[in-house]
Amino acid sequence: MALPIEDYALIGDLRTAALVGRNGSIDWLCLPRFDSPACLAGLVGSDENGHWQLHPEGDYETSRRYLGGSAVLETTFTTATGVVTLTDLMPRGDQRADVVRSVTGVRGTVRMHHRWVIRFDYGKVRPWVRRQTIGGEQVISAIAGPDQLLLRGPRLPRATDHRHEDTFDVTEGEELVFSTTWLPSHVEPHDLGDLRDRIRATVEADEAWAGRCPDDLPHADVVLRSLLTLRLLTHEVTGGIVAAPTTSLPEDFGGERNWDYRFCWLRDAALTLTSLVRAGYVDEATLWRSWLLRSVAGDPEDLQIMYAVDGARRLPERTLDHLTGYEQSRPVRIGNAAVDQHQSDVLGEVMVALEHARDAGADSDSNAWALQVALVENLAEKWQEPDNGLWEIRGKPQHFTHSRAMVWAAFDRAVRAVEKSGLEGPVERWRQIRDAVHEEILAHGFDHERGTFTQHYDTTEVDASLLVLPQIGFLPGDDPRILGTIKAIEEDLIRDGLVLRYRTQSGVDGLSGDEHPFLACSFWLVSAYALAGRRDQAHALFDRLVGLVNDVGLLSEEYDAANGRMVGNFPQAFSHLALVQAAFDLAGR
Ligand SMILES: OC[C@H]1O[C@H](O[C@H]2O[C@H](CO)[C@@H](O)[C@H](O)[C@H]2O)[C@H](O)[C@@H](O)[C@@H]1O
């Protein structure tokens, strides 16, 4: 049975990722890529939809940590008879997808239970399972359709009723290493190699990356874990950055607000990049820029708001009706219909991120600038159209104020690229559009009676996305119109001290049900306070929010403070990138 979301930790190999529960169960694993069909899907169904568990028999207590600045997870189980650790990781650097689990006896003797239940194609397909000898080593292979998994270890579990189980004792000093490796089903496995070298290399590479992170930010340890998490959501070969490694962890327990986040949104990825670049990770920017160039290549008119990790464009949304959903939250969706939406903010976020990269010394690339010119020119033709906004509403398109402000940012950064960096473009035309958008927003997106910006041009509702306006330099953080907007958001959108995206009761999103406060928006309020000079409030809120990370520093999309539960896909880039940005805004850098 799936655990509360906050009881999971993330491991990954920079191509895909898995969620490991406090109970030693891997309940979510898509191999070999983030958006491949899951072979362990118990998270959004039941144990019968696939899980791989190693845990002590009987009662035990659990504590967990990542080893240093790495993505290697160590779970310590304490029982009445002894203590064992379970070390979980996905080794890197060999173009292969493996999950490695090492059980080590620390004290006394502990009886462990091992259960390996594989169901391919999102928990649906029972594989053909047999024992095989490869290079003199006995392994269990599970095959169905395009996929093959090999389970290795010093004791292989026995088949009973479409699952594999075993019980064994671990005594002090003993170490048992198990691994599951994915291969295409047509590949004849040979020479599986020794995984220990790669475990060491993986930890060393992680530590070297983490060692470059600034250590003088508020809550530097939490900021580092956020950056490491953003890195784990980046595909190291293609450069694509996924919004989260999961699908359909609900925004509303038992409701329909369940979405697939295993794709690369231009908005989420650009904001991730901005956070990484602010922390000094500039190589990632170059990698993502190349992904952008390939994915967006072609007619600017065909620009999408999201793509697959390899740049593929078709992401049709379907429901998986054989899955019961996380805590009965149905449907479980794969693909995302928002792919076809018009969201006019995305180019703004991309232009802001690429400016950060340029300023941080990323290699210049004439193709990248040519692409930006083409996209900005295209936006010049259609910036006045209504859109679905950054919240991807499924109701009637509107003239969203945040979208228009990001249009302003797109032209502003294009102008600055010419003025500051000497790049070429029709700067006078861009200046005129930039100024016209600014004027239009002040005329139609501002409620003079209440002294606040509004969610869109035909409403008096407010929206947490308006907190971004000072971040992009639309107005100074202490401008009375920004202060009025902060006040209106404090009045209308705070629940349990955290910030909602908007009032769902207005019906703007075209969906039923409600949602919980959105963590990224709560971090944006920290940034807004900091930029307004309200430093005490900024620090107090940041301290509170940082206190919401789970025991290994991870955040989901939303937070239900009344019940102390994480909500929505997990871990979510949006939450972690906003945490990093807030730390930099607090530090004034
Ligand atoms: O709430 C409705 C929408 O929720 C998802 O979008 C949210 O997640 C995206 C990825 O992190 C983010 O870019 C967007 O701003 C968020 O609103 C979902 O993907 C949409 O299909 C859905 O309509």
Automatic annotation (TrEMBL):
It is an enzyme of class 3 (hydrolase). GO terms for biological process: trehalose catabolic process. Residues 2-130 form the Trehalase-like N-terminal domain. Keywords: Carbohydrate metabolism, Glycosidase, Hydrolase. It comes from the Bacteria. Its cofactor is phosphate. GO terms for molecular function: alpha,alpha-trehalase activity. InterPro entries: 6-hairpin_glycosidase_sf, 6hp_glycosidase-like_sf, GH15-like, Trehalase-like_N. Coiled coil: none annotated. The keyword Electron transport does not apply. Residues 219-583 form the GH15-like domain. Its EC number is 3.2.1.28. It catalyses: alpha,alpha-trehalose + H2O = alpha-D-glucose + beta-D-glucose. Pathway: Glycan degradation; trehalose degradation; D-glucose from alpha,alpha-trehalose: step 1/1. Belongs to the glycosyl hydrolase 15 family. This is Trehalase. It comes from Nocardioides panaciterrulae. The lineage of its organism: Bacteria, Bacillati, Actinomycetota, Actinomycetes, Propionibacteriales.
